[in-house]
Amino acid sequence: MSEAVKDEKFLTYKGKPLVRSGNTIYYGNMKDKFVVMMQIQDSKKDDELGLDMAQKVTIQLLSTDLDLRIKDRIIKKSEKEGLYKAMDLASIWLERALKDAATKA
Length: 105
Prior knowledge:
Blueprint: H1 3-6, E1 11-13, E2 16-21, E3 24-27, E4 34-46, E5 51-63, H2 70-73, E6 74-81, H3 83-104
């Protein structure tokens, strides 16, 4: 692994990495048993800020187990209005799932 990849820093939320690719945001560490995928379904331009603001966000708690079929990796799914509410739910789901996985191990 190159030094540039090792030293790469990610934006974090509550100590977990956030990675964005287009309208998809992944929250969590891919080395953990679970991550959250958020997809921005709809956004609206905020004239004051000049930014696109997420309106409707689909949230999925996913298993990182590569032995499972893609469909079977989806543990929970929901939809929220706004990125703040989506991030709040994502952090709760991820924290609980990782805690449950640790107690079962």
